[in-house]
Design goal:
five-stranded mixed sheet, eight-stranded mixed sheet, Spore Coat Polysaccharide Biosynthesis Protein SpsA, Chain A, Ubiquitin-like (UB roll), 17 strands, 10 helices, 23% strand, alpha/beta, 27% helix
């Protein structure tokens, strides 16, 4: 098997240019140490799974797949979320990786894969990891090695690895490391991640890879303040005491950001994140550094919001 520095080559490595980025969230774990399903844990008025799915959707241009255990009840998710079942019980994360990638066959060329329990996952982290596969057509996996550990459940994978992952599961070779042994893996150390100017500014401690395994972990994470974001109101919403000046607030969802400035986020209000991602979903998750623009949801609101910052 041929090799290059920091990588291991797969015999049939992928060499085509990547067009789409998708997301996969693994929700089928047993949560034995937590004692309750992680996916449904409350997170600033939402749930851990809803937040992870929403962050993934914000950072990718493809579908988001949730892999659950057969019969597992999930909390409310966006209507366009694609839910698939693990075909086997108790086979661990590699089975979930295989199932998630298989569900994306023909729909995307690469996917960022994460577990449910990463409440501080930042869109900038996802984009930085996915960019490895965009820039290196020979790479199969972009694997962060962050905060002292390899992060196979905060990594990017070519969708075509589904068959290899499934074969390894059928052989009971269930560790992600077995998949990495057969593919080109580009590893991203802490320094390389923090060197990215956007990620370095918005997530300098790489909290994106922090997970919550126990109730104590969850309670400590939930006790942290919500992300700091900037809110600006436009049009009729900026009249009266609110004013048009940007305001820094702490909020984990669009609804939370609206509430922080005395605004009710209802069907009469439209929001845009950074001026381009338009949403009317109050549960849309926010991350540190977000710019949130609000405007009355009349016929021209989306066009005016899309012009913000031009």
């Amino acid at each position: 098997m041929s090799q290059r520095a920091g990588t291991t080559r797969c015999a049939d490595a992928y060499h085509e240019e990547m067009a789409d980025y998708a997301g996969v969230v693994l929700a089928g774990g047993r949560s034995s140490r937590m004692g309750t399903p992680k996916a449904s844990l409350e997170w600033h008025g939402s749930t851990l799974l809803r937040r992870t799915v929403g962050i993934m959707a914000r950072a990718t241009d493809g579908p988001v797949v949730v892999v659950r255990a057969a019969g597992q009840v999930l909390p409310e998710l966006p209507a366009d979320t694609h839910v698939v079942d693990d075909p086997r019980d108790g086979k661990g994360p590699l089975q979930g990786i295989a199932a998630g990638l298989a569900a994306l066959a023909g729909r995307a060329e690469a996917a960022f894969i994460s577990s449910t329990d990463m409440p501080f996952l930042h869109p900038a982290f996802i984009r930085r990891v996915l960019r490895v596969l965009m820039d290196d057509a020979a790479a199969d996996v972009a694997l962060p090695v962050a905060r002292g550990y390899s992060q196979p459940l905060a990594a990017a994978y070519r969708v075509r690895l589904a068959e290899t992952a499934e074969r390894l599961v059928s052989e009971d070779r269930l560790r992600p490391a077995f998949l990495f042994d057969e593919c080109i893996v580009v590893r991203l150390e802490d320094g390389a991640l923090r060197h990215d100017p956007v990620l370095g500014a918005l997530d300098p401690d790489l909290d994106s890879v922090v997970n919550v395994n126990t109730l104590r972990d969850y309670e400590q994470a939930r006790a942290r303040p919500a992300p700091e974001v900037t809110v600006q109101l436009f049009g009729a919403l900026a009249s009266g005491g609110n004013g048009p000046a940007p305001r820094a607030v702490r909020a984990a969802t669009v609804a939370g950001a609206a509430s922080a400035v005395g605004l009710t986020f209802d069907r009469f209000v439209t929001a845009a994140l950074g001026g381009d991602q338009i949403t009317r979903d109050p549960a849309t998750p926010l991350a540190a550094g977000d710019l949130v623009y609000f405007m009355s949801a009349d016929a021209g609101a989306e066009k005016r919001l899309s012009d913000v910052g031009r």
